[in-house]
Amino acid sequence: MTARIDRDRPLAVANRLAVLAMWPVALSVYALAARGLLGCGFRSLTGLPCPFCGTTHALSALLMGRGLTSLGWHPLILPGVVLALAQSLVHIAELVGRTSLVPMRVWDRCWWWLFGLICLTWVGRLLALLLP
Prior knowledge:
3% strand, mainly alpha, 2 strands
């Protein structure tokens, strides 16, 4: 059963538009990073990789059709891209059809699970670097 998006609640519409607005920003950051114009601030300050280190290379490899190589750069790039694409497509359908297909709390849970997995992956990478 689908519920109508409450058009009186601007926050619901703004949230969906914000998810869609992330694509131009993400592609701009990717373009700068791919050309070496944007580096990792965390790594520059600490000398250690951040939780997202390798995602630019992973995305580049994924876009060139080298899925296994992309997983080597960052193992969670594929679930992240799939989740972002799925959420964007559903939000477009919701804004056009004015019907809520998936409750926001479901997306929130998916993103929190992915964030938790990214943190666990990061801890594993740090341990691999710091332990002999």
